[in-house]
Amino acid sequence: MSRSWGMAFATLISRLTGFARIVLLAAILGAALSSSFSVANQLPNLVAALVLEATFTAIFVPVLARAERTTPTAAPRSYGDW
């Protein structure tokens, strides 16, 4: 339970510092320039995430399907064993 609270607290701090960053950018650069900066900063990350997700799906789904075909009864247990 204490780990859950720790993660919740870390997430809260992350959200608050992210909000402070956005407010400071808008205050320093102005709203229009801040928006342009945000788009230019987030666009490469978005493209990378889309490419990586597509690659991950293309690789992982066939491996999962093959594992389920070969041992259908053991597959659910092996997926849950972290």
UniProtKB/TrEMBL annotation:
Keyword terms, alphabetized: Cell membrane, Cell shape, Membrane, Peptidoglycan synthesis, Transmembrane, Transmembrane helix
Membrane topology: Multi-pass membrane protein
InterPro entries the record matches: Lipid_II_flippase_MurJ/MviN, MurJ
GO terms for MF: lipid-linked peptidoglycan transporter activity
Localization in the cell: Cell membrane
TM region positions: 48-67
GO process terms (BP): lipid translocation; peptidoglycan biosynthetic process; regulation of cell shape
Domain of life: Bacteria
Recorded GO CC terms: plasma membrane
Protein name, per record: MviN-like family protein
Keyword Secreted: no
Taxonomic placement: Bacteria, Bacillati, Actinomycetota, Actinomycetes, Mycobacteriales
Keyword Cell membrane: yes
Main localization category: membrane
